[in-house]
Structures are given as C-alpha cells and as structure tokens.
Amino acid sequence: MNSTGSQSQAQSQSQSQGSHSLAFRVMRLCKPSFHVDPPLRLDLSDLIAGEDIFDDPIAASNLTPLLDRHVANPTDSSDLSYRARFLLHDSSDPMGLSSLLVLPQSFGAIYLGETFCSYISINNSSNFEVKDVIIKAEIQTERQRLLLLDTSKSPVESIRAGGRYDFIVEHDVKELGPHTLVCTALYNDGEGERKYLPQFFKFMVANPLSVRTKVRVVKETTYLEACIENHTKSNLFMDQVDFEPAQHWSATILQANEHHSHSNSHTRDTFKSPILIRSGGGIHNYLYQLKLSSHGSTQMKVEGSNILGKLQITWRTNLGEPGRLQTQQILGTPITRKDIELHVLEVPSVINLERSFSLHLKLTNQTDRELGPFEVSLLYDGLHEEKVVMINGLQTMALPQVAAFSFTDFHLDLIASKLGIQRITGITVFDTREKKSYNPLPDFEIFVDLD
C-alpha cells in the first residue's frame, strides 16, 4: 500500500475574493523509506582484545568462552542495563537498518518518467452545509493542460459542516520544469450563493538520469554505446534498457557473459536480475551492435537518413516505485547509397602456396536501372606494393550486365606467392559502358600454407 506523505510545500494560492467555506488540502502519495539507526555498534571482541590475539592459538581458543560470559542475551528481560544494545548481534547490524519504516516529511522530488499520485481533500470549515459541489483538478505545464478529475456530470450533493470530500488523482510525468496542480470548486454556500474557489499547487519536475551515447562504425557494423547516469538520491534498479532500432536496422545487445555456458540460460532469462545504478552519480554502460538489414530497393529509402533508433528505459526505486523514459531518436552517420556493392561470399578454408584458389564473390546492382557490362581486376600500387596475391589467368574478368536491384555471383581465380597471413587488396569493378570505377572491395586477409 502507498503511504500518505506530507502536504505539498509548493505554493498554494487562491484567486477568489472574500471568504470561502471550502479549502483544498493536497498531499502526495508515495512509498515510505527505511529507518536508519544512527548509533555506531561495536563488536565486543574488539574491546577486549586486538586482532593479534589470533596469532596465539591458545588465547584465540579462550576468546569465545570469555565473550559468552560477558555478553548478556539481548532478549533477556532480566538484564536492565541494556549493555548489549550497542553490540553487533547480526551481520546486518552495521547497516543501521531497523524494522521500522518512515513516512516522508516533505513533498520530496518529482522526476520525469514517474507517476505523480496525489491525495486531495476538500474540507468544509464553515458551520453550514455546502451543496452541488463541482470539483475539477488539472495539471498545467508550459505546453499543455491535462484534466485529471471533473465532477460536472455528477456533482457532490453536499458536504456537511466540518466534513470533507476526498479523492485521488494520478499523472504520468512526461515533461520537465514547472508544473501546477489546479484544483477548483464551484458550490452553493450556506446562504445559497454560488461561489467559485480556485487553488494552485506548484512543483518542479527534475530529470532522474542522463543518457550519453557514442556511435562507432567498423566496416559494415555500427556500435552504439549508451552511458546512463543516476541523478536521483535513490538507487535505481534498471528493469529494461532496450534499444528500438529504426526501420531497416537490427540491434543486438552485447554483454560480457555472452559466450559463457548457456546451461542455465532459460533460468537467467526468466529470473533476470535488475541492474543497479547507485544514487548520486552512479553509471552503467550498455553496448549495442547495429546492422543495416535492408537490401535492394529498400536501400534507396534510407539514403541520407542517420536515424538509428531510440532507447526504452524502465526502472524501479528501492521500494519498487516504477519509472519509465524514452529517449529522443539517436543519430548516426548518414547513410549513403552505393550504386554497386561487391561482397565476398566464400573463401577456401585451405589455401596452398603457388596453387590456384577461387574466391566466390557477389556483385549487387542497388540502383533502379540496368548497369554494366563490368570488368573485374586487381589493382596495385606498383611503387610501394609487392604482388603477393595475383589473378591466375587473364588479369581482367568480364561480367555481363546486371538488372536493376539484382545481382550476379562469380568466381575469381587467384594465386599466392608467399606463406603466412597475406592481405588481398584492390579488387575493383569497372563499368565499361559508363566508364566508371567503383570503390574496391574492402581488404581482407587469408592464410597461405604449404602443400
């Protein structure tokens, strides 16, 4: 059950003229906190002897009987000295946590992503009964007004002298900055006069956490690092930090234990422990691997777009109060469309010295028109680069035209002249009709062995 906190310390104002029979009282509903017992507790063995007593086996063996004779049983009602109240009896005693809970003594901080829950009581402080009471409660921000309660269709028939009418309102906090809870009442007083009572309760909404992101591109893979920092005075237990990729992207979270034994993987998924981010500046980092899942015609639709996606974050505080935030769209490097894409489909598992081997390659036309014919060759910088891997046979391979959004796969025969790890560079495609060279295939390595 939620516990009622203290009355709002925010400003309460009334714009009405003259006295009113009714008045609003606003209290915040929130969880209690643990009571911390400040006195320092001691271990009796530290008072009787130092740590060097364990260097002597005989003295150490006599320490426990000695303590048993001098320590009173904490549950013994005959011990009126209460000598044991400052001694450690349980391993949790140094934490200072007792079995008591404490209700909030102030309105407290309200954070973005939380649910603001308020207990509102309208009191009749006059000596007369008021009738036909229409009550409204709304939240006003810099951007909008949200109606939380409206009894216009079913007014409160009457509130007796000294009586009250209570209700609870909730609001999911989605904006930062100043907020105003506006409570109004329209009623007939004891003399039958129709009166209007507005009251305003102001409070501020702060940001509970900050999210800093870094984007790195390695070849055709994008890595997103998200650093979440806790700005509240309470520990946050992160239930969910999921990255929702934009269209044509796929995302995988990378974790340190990803390659560990998966014998209990089902149990770990079912009973997933929340990640603790400590109060007052605690941080935790998340790493996501993003890949562009679009092919063919969809590649044109994302050209120039740099939207990667957004983070969905949910958490709970020490006593289980939930919170939820969604970040803005996270941006990466703008996507540029390539007319021609050349990929390696397969490399032989065994490559022998001075023996021909075949690379299986794929050439994709990513435009809406037919391209080609093509010539595939291996280019070298003759001044600085030695020919270690060469084409076996004709130095230029001819390929036919490729239809729009289509592809062709082919085999390129190569031969290596050196042992060990060698790099294949400079595989280039040339369009003979448009007289245009395309970016070469990214470098990759092979291992050359003896027969």
From TrEMBL:
Residue ranges annotated for the Trafficking protein particle complex subunit 13 C-terminal domain, each copy included: 348-439
Q: Which InterPro entries match?
A: TRAPPC13, TRAPPC13_C, TRAPPC13_M, TRAPPC13_N
> In the UniProt record, which is one GO cellular component term?
TRAPPIII protein complex
Trafficking protein particle complex subunit 13 N-terminal domain span: 20-205
Residue ranges annotated for the Trafficking protein particle complex subunit 13 middle domain, each copy included: 209-330
Check the record and name the Pfam families matching this protein.
TRAPPC13_C, TRAPPC13_M, TRAPPC13_N
List, alphabetically, the PANTHER family matched. Answer: TRAFFICKING PROTEIN PARTICLE COMPLEX SUBUNIT 13
Give the family this protein belongs to, as stated in its UniProt record. Answer: Belongs to the TRAPPC13 family.
The protein here is known as Trafficking protein particle complex subunit 13
* Native source organism of the sequence: Quercus rubra (Northern red oak)
The uppermost taxa in this organism's lineage are: Eukaryota, Viridiplantae, Streptophyta, Embryophyta, Tracheophyta
